[in-house]
Amino acid sequence: MRYDFGSDNTAGMAPSALKALAEANAGYARAYGSDEITQRAADLIRQRLDADAEVRFVFSGTAANAIALSMLAQPYEAVLAHHAAHICTDETGAPGFFGHGVGLIGLPGFSGKIDPAAVHAALNEPVVGHRQPAAALSLTQCTEYGAVYSEEALRHLIEPAKLRGIGVHMDGARLANAAVAGFDLPQIARLGVDILVFGGAKAGANCTEAIVIFDKSLARRIDNRLKQAGQTASKARFLAAPFLGLLESGEWETGAAHANRMAQRLADGIESRSSFVLAHPVEANAVFVRMPPEAHARLNALGWACYMFDDGSVRFVCSWASEEDVVDELIEAIATL
């Protein structure tokens, strides 16, 4: 089975990330995040975001999202999110686990973007003692369907939430892909996002993500929270080093730009060479195709790993490691179905 397009998680580490990891292994360093590598990586994230923020590196996006949301909502409260968001569909109740009962309220919207009318409707729900009221809004950039929010679109979601005293979290697992698609990273803090998960694994790091806390009042005893959650690495430099390599070399951006180009190449080839149609606009590194189950099964039988997604479309994801000739090989395979 070929996993080239199964997910951007199936690719290995980008060269700069792997090199930085190897370099971090030389000699000795202070433990628990007080080392120079961790500090330099955090500084580079702050520079990319043009914001003063607390930065911590953790082992997974699931933990990063869930811990972040636990800072914004009490156990008797809930988080507003798109119904197809990763926190709603792929994290096995982790927000509720880390938040000791925090609930999730799924909202509609095309291509994973929350419909502003749905946010207004949810915010206007009366607070009653028998339901968990909304205390946080979670946004995904890029969305689970590869869509990229514009600054204006985010403003229409964030402003009404902030006016109601609602905290805002952003899942940026594929933030690099959004950035190279034209999204201005410094706008995240300026728009009022309180906590961001700055993606590493999908950008070419190993299993590491960064929690970025813009509202520093939320960072009180963050290290205690992370330790209790099993997210404090004694050899923290090995979580930070891949970020350092990606950001110092620029591969965080160039790898994402390559992934986006490969996705567009794949989408163009599918549209021109086959009878299948795209289910969603291609704005980043993911391609979703309307494909009958029989065709999907045949493609799997030909050795291409691709998955049926929540809306019934088949997803293909490109990465920093995707190769043009392999993209063309996949296009040819789809054209024969």
DSSP helix count? 14
CATH level 3 topology of the largest domain: Aspartate Aminotransferase, domain 2
The low-confidence runs, each spanning 5 or more residues with pLDDT under 50, are: none
Side-by-side strand order of the widest sheet: 1-7-6-5-4-2-3
Helix and strand composition category: alpha/beta
Radius of gyration: 20 Å
General form:
globular
Mean pLDDT: 97
- Main pleated-sheet profile: 7 strands, mixed
Q: What is the helix/strand order?
A: HHEHEHHEHEHEHHEEHHHEEHEEH
User: Strand percentage, roughly?
Assistant: 5-15%
Head-to-tail CA distance between termini: 17 Å
Count structural domains: 2
Considering the protein shown, what is the CATH homologous superfamily of the largest domain?
Type I PLP-dependent aspartate aminotransferase-like (Major domain)
The number of strands is 11
CATH architecture of the largest domain: 3-Layer(aba) Sandwich
Helix content: 40-55%
Q: Regarding CATH, which class of the largest domain?
A: Alpha Beta
Quick overview:
The protein has 337 residues and is of the alpha/beta class. It has 14 helices and eleven strands.
Structure in words:
With 337 residues, the protein is of the alpha/beta class. It folds into two domains: 15-249, Aspartate Aminotransferase, domain 2, CATH 3.40.640; 251-335, Aspartate Aminotransferase, domain 1. The protein has 14 helices and eleven strands. The strands form two sheets. A seven-stranded mixed beta sheet has the order 1-7-6-5-4-2-3, sandwiched between helices. Helix 1 (15-24) packs across helix 11. It starts with 14 loop residues before the first helix and ends with a helix.
